[in-house]
Inverse folding.
């Protein structure tokens, strides 16, 4: 018994000795490596990896693909989706860190525990799935540098490129992937890495819209893929690319390949819809496709996708050259799309594009661009171009709707009362019919939205939505509870007042808040309007309330038409590039409003359009109208000298500079100088009509400050009478009312500085000095203004193909950290032109502080010396001039301004 006991104790002691010896991480002995590999594998890495697999599976489930765009290679979801799996990924990171800290045997520059390496890679993946791409990049770099030549380092390199891609560092990502590709082809890297490489290549090419390369790598990836689900996704992406490139036959082929992989229903449905929209009408009748889509509409399981089916029908009709039916189906798609915002945007944009391009119905197109822009995210493809067109159309329809409304009001005003009443009654009937249809559509859409929600929760049995009697009961119940509601998210929260901007026959007469001027010289009949019915759109009085009843009112409305014709003509010509529409506006303006101030610019635009079209007789006619009728005008000078616009720009700058100085004098309390210089400016800058009332305004307010109230009121009344179109007239009226009520503008801060007066008092000399100073610079440099006390930036403009912007940014940031850490300066990079990038260092309190920094970084910064100065320029620039510089992009023009003003005291 004693002998057995002794043997037992010896065995236990030996085992404990072996375990204790194995716990050491200081030596790479066999037992040490065996123990730590085993423990790191099963106690650490395996648990962390299982947690990460759980997170990936959950992401696959909750991430929703947007089929209106080209799908990404992997379903990573949104940032919100990633946050939902943070607990699992944090556990992965915790286990990975534990493995690295407790089980690493790093001896003689080598890691001897395989699962420590895998733990580091696992942590990189966890950061990637958390969408913390910078952290993933740091982890991948560590693995690549610590374990070069291993499969783990090779995999980390591909993940590193993927993280760069998602961080929008596309050039760097592409470079890394090319290196991996070259290594695989040369045998320096395992061929098995191709399974990860090719999808990563596609992932990098898609956001850059490098579709040819994406297709090439997709083919390679498909050949290397055995996973049926992933292969279906890749076929679908291939089809989407060809569809976007308008290669519909090839797109159809790959949609069918995706279907052959038996994908999940949502992909199957979208593939079938896209096949329908790719149908080539030249190959036969489209009735079969039309029948198929109608069957899809009737299929209960497609209730969630009805908006997409209508869109596919619209695409089909568009391919069949039936634009009217296409528009009807795009409109239905918009109406029934209550939850799928991406599809609603896509349908609205498509309908807007058809109205814009085919029908040239810009008024209606603007409404649908409105619909799309209201819910469009800023990362939507071509967002900036869509936004630009949207704003252009807003500007256009603001003018065309005024023209249409005033024309309609004149038409009604000129009718005899009996005919007018009959006409309005017909309008009211059409309005009632339109409103009834709209209410019906809104109710059905609201019920459909509820139906979609119900269907998501149950797929069993028949459903009440397809029973007509229950549908009708639902409508009645809905209307009793909610009334008629607009189809929009959270419609139940409030009932917003109706507002129509359309110019169709159903809504010609929107509410007009302008006051009717009472005038004895009335030109309209004495039609009485019942004020209690004036806001009821089903009442005749609603349409009569805005009729022009005085000559003054008619004159104002005609002036509005003339102004809007000129504005619309400009937009049609320069913005939309529809010269026929532009000609319609300008020709009507010069024919109907010959005495208007807007005729001269219209003559010039007609001359330019006809000259561009090669219509020499018409061009010469309008040219002579200007040269003979307005020989001293700017437009006449522009015809004689095409570079005369530079003189106009110079004059504008001088006038604006003078205005700024007058305003500055006022804020500093030099009221007498304000009066003197403003009076002179009115006489000198007669060709700057927009500034004349502003000069007068400060003249008047300075008079009021000096207690010359009657003179101030007289000056303000002059503005109200002779500059009625100026934007400052409402302010002028307020000042008149205050002064008439006895309101006093105190002038206790008035300053009289003889030196300043001598310097600035003589307006003519000042103008001459400004002109002389400006003449030393070319006109394009005169766009900038020197204000040394404004905040400033230091900028670097560099050639993108010679200097990597991020590398130079890091050099500047390192310099700032070393020498200006207390100021916390920031260095931002942005595109300047397609070949140049801009680094902006901000901010400095004034020009002197910015110049100190500029001199120091350009002479002392060692990190910048490695960049060839031939390939970049650097300047100091005020916040005021920065926007002008960015818009004009004329580096040499600013260089001359910079050298003249910023080195004057050097």
């Amino acid at each position: 018994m004693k002998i057995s006991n002794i043997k037992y104790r010896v065995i236990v002691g030996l085992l404990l000795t072996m375990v204790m010896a194995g716990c050491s991480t200081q030596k790479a002995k066999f037992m040490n490596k065996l123990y730590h590999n085993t423990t790191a594998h099963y106690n650490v890495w395996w648990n962390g990896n299982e947690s990460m697999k759980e997170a990936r599976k959950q992401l696959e489930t909750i991430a929703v693909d947007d089929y209106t765009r080209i799908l990404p290679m992997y379903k990573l979801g949104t940032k919100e989706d990633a946050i939902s799996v943070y607990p699992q990924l944090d556990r992965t990171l915790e286990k990975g860190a534990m493995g690295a800290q407790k089980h690493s045997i790093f001896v003689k520059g080598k890691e001897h525990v395989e699962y420590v390496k895998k733990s580091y890679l696992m942590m990189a993946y966890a950061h990637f799935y958390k969408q913390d791409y910078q952290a993933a990049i740091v982890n991948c770099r560590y693995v690549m540098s610590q374990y070069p030549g291993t499969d783990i380092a090779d995999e980390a390199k591909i993940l590193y490129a993927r993280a760069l891609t998602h961080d929008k560092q596309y050039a760097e990502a592409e470079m890394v992937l090319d290196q991996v590709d070259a290594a695989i082809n040369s045998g320096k890297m395992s061929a098995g890495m191709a399974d990860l490489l090719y999808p990563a290549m596609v992932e990098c090419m898609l956001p850059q819209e490098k579709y040819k390369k994406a297709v090439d790598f997709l083919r390679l990836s498909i050949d290397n893929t055995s996973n049926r689900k992933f292969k279906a996704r890749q076929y679908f992406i291939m089809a989407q690319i060809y569809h976007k490139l308008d290669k519909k036959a090839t797109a159809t082929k790959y949609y069918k390949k995706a279907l052959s992989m038996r994908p999940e229903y949502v992909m199957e449905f979208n593939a079938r819809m896209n096949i329908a929209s790719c149908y080539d009408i030249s190959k036969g009748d489209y009735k079969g496709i039309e029948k198929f889509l109608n069957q899809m509409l009737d299929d209960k399981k497609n209730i969630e996708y009805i908006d997409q089916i209508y869109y596919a029908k619209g695409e089909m009709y568009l391919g069949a050259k039936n634009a009217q039916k296409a528009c009807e189906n795009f409109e239905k798609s918009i109406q029934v799309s209550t939850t799928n915002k991406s599809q609603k945007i896509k349908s609205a944009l498509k309908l807007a594009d058809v109205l814009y391009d085919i029908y040239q119905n810009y008024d209606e197109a603007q409404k649908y661009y409105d619909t799309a822009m209201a819910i469009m995210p800023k990362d939507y493809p071509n967002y900036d171009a869509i936004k630009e067109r949207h704003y252009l159309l807003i500007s256009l329809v603001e003018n065309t709707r005024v023209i249409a409304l005033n024309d309609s009001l004149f038409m009604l005003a000129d009718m005899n009362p009996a005919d007018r009443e009959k006409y309005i009654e017909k309008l009211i009937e059409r309005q009632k019919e339109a409103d009834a249809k709209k209410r019906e559509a809104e109710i059905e859409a609201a019920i459909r939205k509820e139906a979609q929600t119900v269907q998501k929760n149950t797929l069993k049995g028949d459903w009440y939505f397809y029973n007509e009697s229950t549908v009708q009961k639902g409508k009645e119940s809905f209307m009793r509870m909610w009334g008629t509601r607009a189809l929009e998210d959270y419609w139940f929260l409030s009932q917003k007042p109706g507002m129509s901007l359309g110019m169709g026959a159903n809504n010609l007469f929107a509410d007009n808040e302008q006051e009717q001027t009472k005038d004895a010289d009335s030109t309209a009949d004495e039609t009485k309007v019942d004020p209690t019915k004036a806001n009821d759109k089903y009442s005749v009085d609603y349409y009569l309330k805005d009729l022009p009843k005085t000559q003054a009112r008619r004159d104002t409305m005609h002036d509005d038409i003339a102004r809007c014709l000129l504005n619309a003509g400009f937009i049609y010509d320069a913005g939309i590039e529809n010269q026929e529409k532009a000609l319609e506006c300008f020709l009507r303006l010069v024919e109907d409003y010959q005495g208007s101030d807007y005729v001269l610019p219209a003559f010039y635009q007609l001359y330019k359009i006809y000259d561009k079209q090669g219509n020499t007789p018409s061009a010469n006619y309008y040219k002579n109208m200007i040269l003979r009728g307005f020989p001293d005008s700017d437009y006449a000078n522009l015809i004689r000298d095409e570079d005369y616009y530079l003189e106009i720009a110079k004059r504008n700058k001088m006038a604006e500079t003078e205005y700024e100085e007058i305003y500055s004098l006022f804020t500093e309390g030099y009221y007498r100088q304000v009066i003197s210089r403003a009076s002179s400016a009115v006489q000198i800058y007669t060709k700057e009509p927009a500034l004349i009332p502003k000069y007068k305004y400060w003249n008047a307010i300075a008079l009021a400050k000096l207690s010359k109230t009657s003179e101030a009121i007289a000056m303000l009344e002059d503005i109200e009478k002779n500059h009625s179109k100026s934007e400052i007239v409402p302010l002028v009226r307020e000042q008149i009312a205050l002064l008439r009520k006895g309101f006093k503008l105190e002038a206790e801060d008035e300053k009289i500085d003889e030196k300043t007066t001598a310097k600035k008092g003589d307006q003519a000399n000042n103008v001459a000095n400004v002109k002389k100073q400006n003449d030393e610079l070319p006109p394009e440099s005169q766009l900038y203004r020197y204000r040394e006390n404004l905040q400033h930036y230091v900028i670097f403009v560099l050639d993108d193909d010679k200097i990597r912007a991020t590398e130079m940014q890091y050099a500047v940031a390192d310099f700032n950290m070393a020498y200006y850490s207390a100021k916390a300066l920031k260095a931002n990079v942005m595109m300047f032109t397609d070949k140049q990038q801009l680094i902006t260092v901000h901010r400095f309190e004034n020009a002197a502080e910015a110049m100190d920094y500029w001199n120091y970084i350009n002479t002392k910064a060692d990190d910048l010396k490695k960049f060839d100065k031939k390939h970049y320029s650097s300047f100091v620039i005020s916040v005021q001039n920065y926007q002008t510089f960015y818009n004009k992009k004329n580096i040499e023009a600013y260089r001359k301004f910079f050298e003249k003003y910023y080195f004057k005291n050097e």
Remarks:
- DSSP finds 38 helices and six strands in the chain.
- The chain has a mean pLDDT of 80.
- The first strand starts at residue 106 and ends at 107.
- The first helix runs from residue 2 to 22.
